[in-house]
Amino acid sequence: MSNFIKTLGLCMLACLLCCCKGKNANSQSSMVNGHFSEQREQSQAGLSSAESRRNRSEAQSSMVNGQLRYAQGFQVKNLAEGIRLIDIQDPQAEESTAWHFALVPKQLASFEVPQDYTVVRTPIDKAICMTMLQLADFIALNALEQVSGITRTHNLYNENVLQRVKDGKIFQIGSEGDFDAEVVMAANPDVIFISPFKRGGYEAIKQTGITLVPHLGYKELHPLGQAEWLKFIGLFTGQEEKANTLYEGICERYDRIKELAAKAEHRPTVLSGEMHGGNWYAVGGKSFLAQIFADAGADYVLKDDPNSGGVNIEFEKLYAMAADADYWRILNSFPGEFSYDALKASEPRNEMFKSFKERQVIYCNMQRSPYYEKAPVEPDVLLSDLVYVFHPEVLPTDYQPTYYKLLK
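Given the sequence above, the corresponding structure tokens read:
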């Protein structure tokens, strides 16, 4: 009986090997430069599936030294020899275009990846950042030597970046919708990180043949989801371990502050935004901002609104909801010293709000702080600033806010 079982096992193994060889031969036409292939029904270009995102764990989202925790806009699969398959999709839309990239270490002379994946050799030498959020990831990773182009330096404070622009090491390629293709070529990037759902204007640079890689961190609905795109950039720059370590520190600090805020007995209410063009511009209750307010121990007046993006509301409707809100958060780029007088001058009815009368406006001027280039990877600091306003008793008395402070 023992010999029979062994013989049967060997026969089964032989059959399995034959099947694998046959499958490999039949799949050669769907491979690129390859020795490894995996047929995945849910990874074809343009395919979107809520189920595929829900099944993010296991191989779909594995990272070196850690799983994706909050980010919903990209998935990573680790293959042999350091190859990474990255799937990118709008985290706010279950039915949307998907992009697929295979990050292949430069030292590999031969390799195989699925046909519908665009190959990027890593670590990249140079990249162009189209947004400050993307640049923030490079700054956090201390990878500015791999940045050869940005759109502009407006509201940019990082001295290293400014000096590299001055020295001609980083090119300014123009603003969205008005890119200078010649300058893009001079920057000589391996990839260009783009925001495909913004104004765009990418047709001109598509003609250069440079690989365009969507960076959808700005579409994430959780502060820690946006910050997790550090890992995404780390995959391209060859800094996976560093990105994972930085991110874990961010999460630990964020969670610690969130736990402190949860102990507060009172949850104040807060409104956000300002009047623009006759309407109040705010964000919905399923947004990044609503999440960080909740984690800071406050109730956003629009927390029940189903929208994740911007909402335009008539003043009267907003006032009915927020007249008695305890706090009012404002983030803008004001030329000069912002004040209650300036807030009233912009809209005389602003003085009607309780938060205005009691001088409880939480303010950040993006012209006077490195908000654009640092805040995306410092959600723990943003949270701390808000908790210090809402619940100062849970933080040290000598805490110094970085971005948000009570307007004087």
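Residues 61 and 200 are 28 Å apart (CA to CA). Try to locate this feature in the token string yourself.
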